[in-house]
Amino acid sequence: MKVPLNKKILDKNEECALKNSEFFATHDIVCMNVISSPGSGKTTILSRTIRDLTGKTKIAVIEGDI
Question: What residue spans define the domains of the chain?
Answer without folding.
Answer: 33-66
